[in-house]
């Protein structure tokens, strides 16, 4: 008698076949592109199952958002109103400061004195060497970048250009061990040299006297003495000052103000290449032109030298006229000289009036 159900392969054999089939499918999918159409079609089928399985969660979130408590909504509304009021107050203060800054700039004529321009650059790479702090920007020689050009971000100075390429440049950061920059304490003007330590968050002031007036929290700005970085840009903030009675110099550590590890967009500073004398002369000319336009400069200093020059040539032609024609030309200049204006009667005109005496006539009679 035959059994009702034929006996199939064992579970171990089935598992082995499935494992081999799975491994074969994974190898084919990883090495070949035969299964990409199948996977794309299966994703369409599985997307519906994903939507169905996620439906309860979405329904719960919708119901919870619709039946939120009224007290939470009122509290959130009051909080937003308070924040809006604070932001409006800050905006009004910033508007007042902006207007004050505009008035001060107009008063100091800073537009004629400050001729630096900037150009935005983007960081596109970093030097993989851990012992050097260098970055690569997307501006190069074709964009007008030059060696030694200062680079800064929204917070302060970052470094300078040390290598040029046609469309990119390499920038040496302030914290590199081979970089130094002349700085001064913004509080009292004390000058020092800030050098890199290899730590992206630390600078050191070299050869600062132990008795120097440097305090924690002092802002260090560029002094412009190195003729490389423009003066007045933030460099670092003093973090620690260590005084040792046995050492002639204090240990001063500072933190760079620029976000050296986080800034992506930078500014290239195109400094003015003119000498201080040229800048002062051009600033004086610009100030004088603006004052003349506004009608501030008096006209007396500009017109005094000009009338003095024509008075001398006006007297010189009167001298050769009298000896050239003593009989006919003497009466003609005498009339305009006496009737022109009392201001023209000068000692030089006295000899012109004397030939009217009949002395030349007596000499002519003797010759006859």
The helical percent reads: 40-55%
How does the overall form come out from the CA principal axes? extended
Q: State the total count of DSSP E strands.
A: 12
Low-confidence stretches: 110-114, 298-368
What is the string of SSEs from the N terminus onward? HHHHEEEEEEEEEEEEHHHHHHH
Distance between the termini: 189 Å
Strand content: 15-25%
Major beta sheet summary? 6 strands, antiparallel, barrel
User: So how many helices?
Assistant: 11
- Rg over CA atoms, rounded to whole Å, is 45 Å
Spatial order of strands in the largest sheet: 1-2-5-4-3-12
- Structural class call reads alpha+beta
Tell me, rounded to a whole number, the average pLDDT. Answer: 75
Can I get a quick summary?
The protein has eleven helices and twelve strands. By secondary structure, the chain is of the alpha+beta class. A hairpin with a 5-residue loop joins strand 6 and strand 7.
Protein architecture, described:
This is Rod shape-determining protein MreC. With 368 residues, the protein is an alpha+beta fold. Helices cover 43% and strands 21% of the residues. It has a 6-stranded antiparallel barrel with strand order 1-2-5-4-3-12. A 6-stranded antiparallel β-barrel has the order 6-7-8-11-10-9. The longest helix is centred in the N-terminal third of the chain and has 39 residues, at 70-108.
